[in-house]
TrEMBL record:
Entry keyword Oxidoreductase: yes
InterPro entries: CrtA-like (IPR049574)
Organism: Psychroflexus torquis (strain ATCC 700755 / CIP 106069 / ACAM 623)
The protein, known as: Spheroidene monooxygenase, putative
A GO MF term: monooxygenase activity
Keywords, alphabetical: Monooxygenase, Oxidoreductase
Top-level taxonomic group: Bacteria
Keyword Oxidoreductase among UniProt keywords: yes
């Protein structure tokens, strides 16, 4: 395996109340475990919103974003670390997306954690693509943002080539992220550059300037690993 950076996004689903409560508690206590993880350069523990992108929490779905020095480091974590084992024990479903960065613009906590490792010109055009967008919403823009944005997301749900989408976040209402998976790069570009709803959303963002920090990133999905369920 190469030593180039790899990013993983783990999607976790819970059914029982006790496991949902455990998952919520790990939003705080999981940080202690992360400190002992070798080869980890960046991570985020995130909850999710109802109906894919909503300020109100979906207590049954959580995610863990991790940026690794190498694929070896990532696999060692998922195969041996006690935190990974705990996630498997408590969740009903656990799926890991291994992703290679194509391009990332913007900042996440004052830095861009994603190093480009894929030349898009040399990439298989049929490769599945993942997109992560995140933003810190200005306090004085919260009401205006949440009044408009959920409506702007509705057309995304029936978009051709879209495989999966979910809204995640570190902090409800203020620190938000979206994760989407696309059949290929052409499908993503068709939505980004031809969807009138998406274009309008971009215009609104520029008009109201409602983010204090934002980041947009594209990845090639290297593989999906199911550790439980699905």
């Amino acid at each position: 395996m190469t030593m180039s950076q790899i990013t993983t996004l783990t999607v976790l689903s819970y059914k029982r109340f006790s496991n949902k409560f455990w998952a919520l508690s790990m939003m705080q206590f999981g940080h202690t475990y992360m400190k002992s993880v070798k080869g980890l350069s960046f991570y985020k523990l995130m909850g999710s919103g109802k109906d894919n992108f909503n300020p109100f929490p979906d207590w049954s779905v959580y995610s863990v974003l991790q940026v690794w020095e190498s694929e070896d480091a990532a696999q060692t974590f998922f195969e041996t670390h006690k935190l990974s084992k705990a996630y498997q024990d408590h969740s009903d479903k656990m799926q890991v997306y291994y992703m290679e960065s194509i391009q990332a613009r913007g900042l996440w906590n004052s830095k861009n954690p994603f190093e480009s490792t894929v030349n898009v010109k040399e990439m298989d055009p049929d490769s599945e693509i993942a997109v992560i967008t995140r933003a810190s919403i200005k306090t004085n823009m919260l009401l205006k943002f949440w009044k408009y944005v959920p409506e702007s997301q509705k057309p995304l749900e029936n978009t051709s080539g879209l495989i999966y989408t979910k809204g995640f976040g570190e902090l409800p209402f203020m620190e938000m992220a979206t994760f989407s998976v696309w059949k290929d790069l052409a499908s993503l570009k068709a939505y980004a550059y031809q969807s009138q709803e998406h274009i309008k959303a971009i215009q609104k963002t520029r008009e109201f300037d409602w983010y204090s920090e934002e980041l947009f990133s594209r990845f090639r999905i290297q593989k999906k690993v199911t550790l439980k369920g699905f």
